[in-house]
Design a protein that fits this description.
single chain, mainly alpha, Hypothetical Protein Ta1238, Chain: A, two-stranded antiparallel ribbon, ATP binding
C-alpha cells in the first residue's frame, strides 16, 4: 500500500468537503493539534505503567479527543458532523482539580523540566497554547469553527501543566521555581495555575 498520493505536490491538501492551501489558517490550526498529539505520545513512552496508570489512561483519551478536534476543524461542509462536545472539557476540569491536590503547594512560576515525561508534557502544553491561538485566529476569520475546540485546547494546556507537576512529584523531583517570580498562585491554600 502506497501512503503517498502526490495530490499535495502543488501546495494544497484536502479538507472534509473542500481543498485548501497547505498554509491556510485552518490547516495550521489542526496541524498544530497533530503536533500536540505527537508530543503526548512521546510522553506516554516515558511513563511507567505501574506509577502512572491514571495519567496514561488520561493521555490516551486525550489523544483520541485531539483527533476529534482536528477532524472537526477540517470539516468545512455546509452541515458538518462535529464529534467534540463539552463533556471532554468537563472531564479535564475534574481531572485538573484532582491532580492539583497531589503535588506540593505552588506559589511561584516554575521552569519546564524535571522527569523526561514532565518535560515533554511541558512542550505539549506550549504547543497546545499555540494551537489555541491559531484556532482563535481561525474563529475570527471563519464563523464555521466549533467553539468547543478552543475551549478544549484552553483546558488541555492546564491539564498538561498539572500532569507534568504530578509526574515530577511522584518521581520525587521538586519543581524548579523561576527565581524572579513573585508569589502568583493563591487559592485557599491549594495551588492552581494562574494562566487563563
Amino acid at each position: 500500500m502506497k501512503i503517498y498520493t502526490k495530490t499535495g505536490d502543488k501546495g494544497q491538501t484536502s479538507l472534509i468537503g473542500a481543498r485548501a492551501d497547505k498554509d491556510a489558517p485552518r490547516i495550521e490550526a489542526y496541524g498544530t493539534i497533530d503536533e500536540v498529539n505527537s508530543f503526548i505520545g512521546k510522553a506516554m513512552t516515558e511513563l511507567d505503567e505501574a506509577r502512572y496508570a491514571d495519567l496514561l489512561e488520561d493521555l490516551e483519551n486525550i489523544q483520541n479527543e485531539l483527533f476529534d478536534c482536528g477532524g472537526d476543524l477540517a470539516d468545512v461542509r455546509k452541515s458538518p458532523k462535529y464529534k467534540m462536545t463539552d463533556e471532554p472539557v468537563e472531564v479535564l476540569e475534574k481531572r485538573i482539580d484532582e491532580l492539583m491536590e497531589e503535588p506540593p503547594l505552588l506559589e511561584r512560576f516554575i521552569l519546564p523540566g524535571g522527569a523526561p515525561a514532565a518535560a515533554t508534557l511541558h512542550i505539549a502544553r506550549t504547543v497546545t497554547r499555540r494551537a489555541e491561538r491559531q484556532t482563535v485566529t481561525l474563529m475570527k476569520a471563519d464563523e464555521n469553527v466549533p467553539a468547543v475546540v478552543q475551549r478544549y485546547l484552553n483546558r488541555l494546556s492546564d491539564y498538561l501543566f498539572a500532569a507534568a507537576r504530578v509526574i515530577n512529584s511522584r518521581a520525587g523531583i521538586p519543581d524548579n521555581e523561576y527565581v524572579r517570580s513573585a508569589k502568583v498562585f493563591k487559592n485557599n491554600g491549594r495551588a492552581k495555575k494562574a494562566e487563563e
